[in-house]
Amino acid sequence: MRVIVLGAGVVGLTTAYLLARDGHRVAVLDGARGAATQTSQANGGQLSYNYVVPFAGPGVMQKVPGWLLDRDGPLRFRPDFTWSQMRWLLQFLRACNAPIAARTTHALLRLAHLSRAGLHELVEREAIDFAFARSGKLVVHSDGSSMEGARRQMASQAAMGSVQHALTAAECVALEPSLANIAPRLAGGIHTPGEDAGDCHLFCLGLERLLRSSNFDVAFHYSTPVTQLLTAGGRVVGAATSAGVHEADAFVLALGNGARALASPLGLDLPIQPLKDYSLTLPITGTAPSISITDAAAKVVYARLGTDLRVAGMADVVGNDAGFDNRRLDTLLRLARGAFPDAADWTVLRPWTGLRPSTPTGLPMLGPSARWPNLHLNLGQGSLGFTLAMGSAAVVTELLGGRPAPIEMDGLRA
Ligand SMILES: Cc1cc2nc3c(=O)[nH]c(=O)nc-3n(C[C@H](O)[C@H](O)[C@H](O)COP(=O)(O)OP(=O)(O)OC[C@H]3O[C@@H](n4cnc5c(N)ncnc54)[C@H](O)[C@@H]3O)c2cc1C
Fold first, then answer.
1. CB of residue 40 inside a 6 A radius of ligand 1
2. Order of strands, edge to edge, in the sheet holding 235-241?
3. Is the CB of 331 under 6 A from ligand 1?
């Protein structure tokens, strides 16, 4: 089949890879000048297959007012008063309860475990250098009640195949000595040995290079913004661009935050909002963590990517504003430097911000759209796009090929 993949972020590229391996003739279209120039660039680098609890959880409602009053808190909200943002927020608040969070967590775990299997197979099969490390992950908690909640979550996830261990504060520091500086405030941590880390940008560039080789039938069209999807006879027949119309038998919409505008004229009302996060990349010069760390109280993640330390955090609900907010960057820098003062050269930092394409529940939308059977969605991976990319691509590839999905799809269908 001739398949057009719209979007050359991590979600589009992994889909192009599996579609090409499945024997399809693939063309990738993107408005940018190259691969992974948007959200898939300098993200947190965590392949976090067992740490998927959605942001929309039962405890969030009580915490939101405090976060919003704290200008340096992990969440910032500046309403743009658009109908889509208001509706998204209402749907988000409606999802903040235990039954929905549990259903979402189960669906994300199924997808994440499929993703881990797919990524490990890819790492063994292809030579892509992206600072991949089977680093494991340690989520540290600063108060007893947060640690208790994490223990309960760990127990419920054990039934889903998650292998995790609860550690005391002393055990956390014994496992990861660079935590010594914050040891006095630690209540404990959850260690997940099976988690990985990697540089998403290098992964995308390496995958693109691989797909350009003669083993794959994939063509890339950059600087090609898609302005409209053309339909006829109940099917999508073409992608209109400034360089003409690209035709195909099937289309995969993997445009991240760009999908909503393109889908809307086709009657598809996609509940995706951009959430802004920040990252810092620093050269490691001293005692930096080897294990990926999440500081649950500060909502900041740390990953060692080769010779660099990647720090990521914050969540700003500010519409499509992708600009830097220096105050947020300063907060992230202060938190990171306070936690790991000897880790890096803090004067040589590379700041970055990206907009996570997020659904209210945290569940992505995968597979054929209800209205257009040959338009397949691969969207809304939010804070877990790197983690979920290979699994999402596998689901879309199987469904596009007319085969059953490789996992139970409850909650994941487009
Ligand atoms: C600070 C930060 C930290 C993060 N940390 C992690 C992490 O540790 N682990 C993890 O798993 N995830 C993480 N994420 C989330 C992850 O980065 C995203 O979920 C993922 O990159 C989304 O990929 P995507 O391919 O859907 O979107 P994108 O990478 O944004 O790709 C979409 C592509 O579509 C193109 N496009 C859009 N509209 C059009 C159009 N009309 N025509 C043509 N092309 C178009 C864009 O140019 C872009 O190339 C983080 C995100 C941020 C911002």
1. yes
2. 226-232, 235-241, 244-247
3. no
Cα–Cα distance, 11 to 226 (Å, whole number): 17
Q: Whose CA is nearest to atom 50 of ligand 1?
A: 43
60-96+133-195+272-358 is a CATH 3.30.9.10 domain:
yes
Segments making up each domain of the chain, as ranges:
60-96+133-195+272-358
Which uninterrupted H or E stretch holds 312?
Answer: strand 308-317
pTM of the model: 0.97
Ligand 1 atom with the smallest distance to the CA of 313 is 1
Among protein residues, the one with the nearest Cα to ligand 1's atom 5 is 44
Say if ligand 1 is within 6 A of residue 380 CB.
no
Residue 71, Ramachandran bin (φ over 0: left; ψ between -120 and 50: alpha; else beta): alpha
Q: Closest by alpha carbon to 364, among 377, 376, 354, 374?
A: 377
> Would you call 50 helix, strand, or coil by DSSP?
coil
For the Cβ of 385 lying below 6 angstroms from any atom of ligand 1, the answer is: yes
Q: What string of pLDDT tens digits covers the 414 residues of the chain?
A: 999 999 999 999 999 999 999 999 999 999 999 999 999 999 999 999 999 989 888 888 887 777 777 777 778 887 788 899 999 999 999 999 999 999 999 999 999 999 999 999 999 999 999 999 999 999 999 999 999 999 999 999 999 999 999 999 999 999 999 999 999 999 999 999 999 999 999 999 999 999 999 899 999 999 999 999 999 999 999 999 988 999 999 999 999 999 999 999 999 999 999 999 999 999 999 999 999 999 999 999 999 999 999 999 988 888 888 899 999 999 999 999 999 999 999 999 999 999 999 999 999 999 999 899 999 999 999 999 999 999 999 999 999 999 999 999 999 999
278 CA closest ligand 1 atom index: 1
Q: How far apart are CA 117 and CA 6, in angstroms?
A: 25
Retrieve residue 221's tokens: 């069209």
Phi, psi angles (nearest 5°) of residue 249: -85, -30
